[in-house]
Amino acid sequence: MLNKLMSIDRRIIFLLVAVAAAIPMFMAFKLPIVPSPSVLNVYDTVEKLPPGSPVLISFDFDPASEAELYPMSLAVLHHCFTKGHRVYVMALWPGAFGLIENAIKETAGAMGKKSGEDYVVFPYNPGYTSVIIGLGQDLLQTFPKDAYGRETASMPALAGVKSLRDMKYVVSIAAGSTVEAWIVYGREKSKFVFGAGCTGVMAPDCYPFLGTGQLNGLLAGLKGAADYEHLVGRPGRGIEGMRPQSVVHILVILLILLGNTAYLLSRRAKKPA
């Protein structure tokens, strides 16, 4: 029996993982969601800003990270529009603009918000460090036109906003190292309040910035997206994705416990009487 446990065919494990991931597709169940303090900080910042506050959201990812980062992007955008903030959307990654278009349709478009009045989508400019530095000096010079070719200087949404110093909140939702670039070239120079979202694998690199206060909040991976969806009362792909992920995690824990138990018992059986 112990020998069988110690040599389970890997194909059986693959099959168990596939079944565990498929269970939530056929069984409707809810998981308890307890938002982490770092997610609550982002939510509370957006929540407490007075209506009409300028908020900049940067989509610093591409479709390869869509599963984790797009749901949190939707949730943050929805929250900002619900609170009546002026929202500026940009991207430091060129592959993000298709995602931005979809996100704007799902949030601003569904809520009747108008481009140029309630929000502005900025175009892609190469060289993300120079873009961040330029925004800290002169936003209108860095983006003289929006993503649709319209002059930004005359847009009501940008009234009174000249640079990053005028932003009440800046959020970077990033798949790479751009969170650190925002801190070094933006936050440290312009002193704005800065929050971020990142993939689960990048979270350990971002947590130290929470301790230093350079980040006031962080949405980490799919769990961060699910937490924010729960807080804004808008269940979406984040919460849906947590169900199969959680079931698979439980299976992995059980397999680890089973394997270690079998190993310890086999060692005990080999000891001389």
Task: Tell me about this structure.
With 273 residues, the chain is of the alpha/beta class. It has two domains: 54 residues; 199 residues, Rossmann fold (3-Layer(aba) Sandwich). Strands 3-2-1-4-5-6 form a six-stranded parallel sheet, with helices on both faces. Helix 4 runs parallel beside helix 5. The chain is elongated and about 85 Å long. The two termini are 20 Å apart. 38% of the residues are buried. The mean pLDDT is 89.
Quote the average pLDDT: 89
Kindly name the structural category.
Answer: alpha/beta
Principal-axes shape call: elongated
List unreliable stretches of 5+ residues. none
Radius of gyration: 23 Å
First-to-last CA distance = 20 Å
- Sheet-strand content, in percent, reads 5-15%
Helix content: 40-55%
Helical stretch tally: 11
**What is the strand tally?**
6
Q: Give the CATH architecture of the largest domain.
A: 3-Layer(aba) Sandwich
CATH class of the largest domain: Alpha Beta
Number of domains: 2
The biggest beta sheet reads: 6 strands, parallel
Write out the strand line-up for the largest beta sheet, numbering strands in chain order. 3-2-1-4-5-6
The CATH topology annotation of the largest domain reads as Rossmann fold
CATH superfamily of the largest domain: MTH777-like
H-E string: HHHEHEHEHHEHEHEHH
